[in-house]
Write a structure and sequence with these properties.
The complex is a heterodimer of chains A (217) and B (356). By secondary structure, chain A is mainly α. Helix content of chain A is 80%, strand content 0%. Chain A has 9 helices and no strands. In chain A, α1 (3-40) packs across α5 and α7 (130-160) runs antiparallel to α9 (186-214). Chain B folds into 2 domains: 2-95 and 171-252, P-loop containing nucleotide triphosphate hydrolases (Rossmann fold); 262-352, ACT domain (Alpha-Beta Plaits). Chain B contains 13 helices and 14 strands. Chain B has helices at residues 2-12, 56-63, 86-93, 111-121, 126-139, 155-167, 185-202, 213-219, 237-242, 247-254, 262-267, 290-298, 329-339; strands spanning 18-27, 30-40, 45-49, 71-76, 79-80, 96-100, 173-177, 205-210, 222-227, 230-236, 274-282, 302-312, 315-324, 345-352. The longest helix of chain B has 18 residues, at 185-202. Chain B is elongated. Classes of the chains: A mainly alpha (217), B alpha/beta (356).
Chain lengths: 217, 356
């Protein structure tokens, strides 16, 4: 493999990491509150509000049912509004975040629902306010599960970012499609796949390690 | 400010810790509590016993405002909490400790952090919290476990952490919701001892909710018996155990006192050669030489077939099944008349043939 190819590979890796990392971080920051709202406004929740719950749930389901490649193109006007351009890495981060946020919210929701009702009751009996219950009980108790779910989200983002080439964002997936597939350069294809495997393997390993370390159950 | 007023009322007031007036609560058309009127005095340990579904859990939730009655008033330390909103209830709940059947400890927090939680909720600074937590862990005998996680502890140790946590905010009232039901008998014993010590040393009022009469017998001074949402019996534990009035109480007590062995029950008939008597005695009477007294009175032998002597709160009680050497109605009446003044209950169960 030539030095040029090696540099392309490095650049692609970096672009994938940036896209995954930034949209992952944003989906965590936006998705966790969304998950908390979904859990606490549900029937029997501490902020029970079924109308809010149904509407948010509906939006989340709608966003999750749109194929990513469609979403990528459909949100171009919004992307332009937010980041000022419709091409490049920052243009890919907007649709990636929009896709990953409801995905992560649903995964985090599962972990939050697993928090024992008895703990919430105990905190209420101690005179805790609802916000205190969220801060001191719901989030810390579900954290190991939330971290595992976030790892899954990141890995999914790596896959989704391959489609970001459609808006000229680059990344490893784009490299594999343009060089490996369209130009029949099998060597590049294999190199990209190997790098992706190592990347995903590393992320999953780090996520598992962190979740295990945080879990005292 | 409201917190201070509440704390002052809790610490120095003289009103009963709990006063319930005609409290009723329904779920759908199923009544959970019906016209409950009861009072808990400062410093007492009171047992609330009933089968599952009797309304015990609802009653406990009404006491700390987690559930609202549809009728009646709930007064805690002189303050009517029936109509208070969530925010106004919070400072009151902070002074009512609670322990649970399944402990309800935070699994991702250390023992010390769990005990500190109510203090954190009350807004105490970390330095004060740390000091108080160590005192409490010392009190429950877990000072060396401060930095462990609940998963590393046994059931009994978890409940000790639960007790330390409940005691942290210096509560006026401790609610124990089936706190020993998930523990083995030996651990139950040590947890009850700890609660009795806390009651004695700190003067803490404790409401013990349980379905086990054994728990009430060990620790409580007074008992309320709940059935289908109503208080069916109430009184000092020794009295209620010795002569239960309601059917619910009788069945709850039945496991505690000896009952006639099945082979003898099978032989009981309306007529026979020997009368079988059940005699219940409490207090000093439980230690009197009853058999000798009957023999001397009737000139007949009195045989002890079955029975036992136990104690409730240091008060002895006895239940004896005696075979009288005759079926003569006059003699039996004579025995009954003689023992009536000292016995809590005396009953002729039936008659058996001579050879028994």
């Amino acid at each position: 493999m030539s030095l040029i190819m090696f540099n392309l590979l490095l650049k692609g890796l970096w672009e994938t990491i940036v896209m995954t990392g930034v949209s992952g971080a944003l989906s965590f920051v936006l998705g966790l509150p969304l998950a908390l709202i979904l859990v606490t406004t549900d029937k029997g929740g501490i902020y029970e509000h079924l109308a809010v719950n149904r509407i948010l749930g509906g939006i989340v389901n709608a966003l999750r049912s749109v194929p990513f490649i469609i979403l990528l193109v459909a949100v171009i006007p919004l992307t332009r509004l937010i980041v000022g351009t419709a091409i490049g890495i920052s243009a890919a981060i907007v649709p990636l975040t929009i896709a990953a946020t409801p995905y992560f919210a649903r995964i985090a929701e599962v972990s939050l629902r697993e928090v024992d009702r008895g703990l919430i009751d105990a905190a209420r009996a101690m005179g805790a306010s609802r916000w205190t219950i969220v801060r001191e009980v719901l989030i810390p108790e579900s954290l190991p599960g939330v971290i595992s779910g976030f790892t899954v989200t990141l890995v999914t983002l790596v896959g989704a970012s391959a489609m970001a080439g459609a808006v000229g964002a680059g990344g490893l997936g784009d490299l594999a499609i343009r060089y490996g597939y369209q130009r029949f350069e099998t060597g590049v294809m294999i190199a990209v796949v190997v790098v992706l495997i190592v990347l995903v393997w590393g992320m999953q390993g780090a996520g598992d390690w962190l979740a295990r370390r945080l879990n005292h159950r | 400010m409201a917190d201070k007023a509440i704390n002052a009322a809790f610490d120095t007031g003289t009103a009963p810790v709990v006063d319930l007036h005609g409290v009723s609560r329904q779920f759908g058309d199923r009544p959970a509590l019906q016209d409950i009127t009861a009072s808990i005095a400062r410093g007492e340990i009171i047992g609330l016993i009933g089968r599952s579904g009797a309304g015990k859990s609802t009653l406990i939730r009404v006491l700390n405002g987690l559930d609202r009655p549809q009728a009646g008033r709930v007064v805690i330390a002189g303050q009517d909490i029936t109509d208070l909103d969530e925010a106004a209830l919070q400072p009151i709940r902070r002074r009512i400790g609670m322990i649970f059947q399944h402990f309800n400890l935070l699994s991702q927090r250390t023992v010390a952090e769990n005990v500190a939680l109510p203090l954190k909720i009350a807004g105490q600074p970390p330095a004060l919290r740390r000091k108080r937590v160590l005192e409490l862990l010392d009190l429950v005998g877990l000072a060396d476990k401060a930095d462990q996680y609940p998963a590393q502890l046994s059931g009994g140790q978890k409940q000790r952490v639960g007790i330390a946590r409940a005691l942290a905010p210096d509560p006026l009232l401790l609610l124990s919701d089936e706190a020993t039901s998930a523990l083995d008998p030996e651990t139950t014993h040590s947890i009850l001892d700890l609660l009795a010590r806390v009651n004695r040393d700190l003067g803490l009022t404790i409401l013990m909710i349980t379905h086990e009469m054994e728990v009430v017998r060990r620790i409580a001074g007074r008992v309320l018996v709940l059935d289908a949402g109503r208080i069916v019996e109430e009184g000092p534990v020794a009295r209620v155990l010795a002569s239960p009035q309601s059917d619910t109480t009788k069945s709850l007590v039945s496991g505690l006192s000896p009952s006639l062995p099945a082979d003898l029950v099978a032989l009981l008939a309306p007529t026979g050669d020997q009368a079988i008597l059940r005699i219940d005695l409490t207090g000093r009477a439980a230690r009197l030489p009853v058999l000798q007294r009957i023999s001397r009175l009737t000139g007949q032998e009195a045989r002890l077939l079955h029975g036992g002597v136990g104690d409730v709160q240091g008060e002895p009680y006895a239940r004896l099944f005696i075979a009288l050497g005759t079926a003569d109605a006059t003699i039996i009446a004579q025995v009954t008349a003689d023992l009536s003044p000292i016995a809590t209950a005396i009953e002729v169960l039936g008659y058996v043939p001579d050879h028994v």
